[in-house]
Write a structure and sequence with these properties.
There is one protein chain. The chain is α+β, with helices and mostly antiparallel strands. It has a domain of about 110 residues: Gcn5-related N-acetyltransferase (GNAT) (Aminopeptidase), CATH 3.40.630. The chain contains 5 helices and 8 strands. It starts with a strand and ends with a strand. This is N-acetyltransferase domain-containing protein.
Amino acid sequence: MERTQVEVRPTRAGDEDGVRKFLLGLSLHTQSHRFFAGVTKPSASMMRALLARDERRDALVAVVDDRVIGHAMAFRDGIDVEIAVVVTDEWQGVGVGSQLVRTLLRRVTGAEWVAMDVMGDNRKVLAMVRRAWPDATMTVESGSVQVRAELTFAEQGSVASPLTV
């Protein structure tokens, strides 16, 4: 297998078309795991939210050969940061999602807790959460799992290395 460099970087002007194509290329199963519904046509407001970066929000993409293969976003509210991540079907299971999460959390300053909502049947992400945060609190509510975990100093503030798969 040829080794491929995956670039994880902040979203920037000009990413809208690439992110839209990425979303539409996700299987219904993967769309549902991320958005809790299918995404047949991403709205302008959805695209703005996925690309937004400011003092409280951050967004990253994972890119291979100018093709978006993953997306992660964070919203910070005081000492809490809520995150969401999705990786295209053919790139799942090789570390892209974990790299997006690590990079995103390293960019967050001032947060002490991370939270995320995960579909109850999303075993891959729940397993990743258990590995990353073994002491995380997981509460089941209406078919989803609300995850809350304490961030460690090591998860914040350092520069992420590129991913090669």
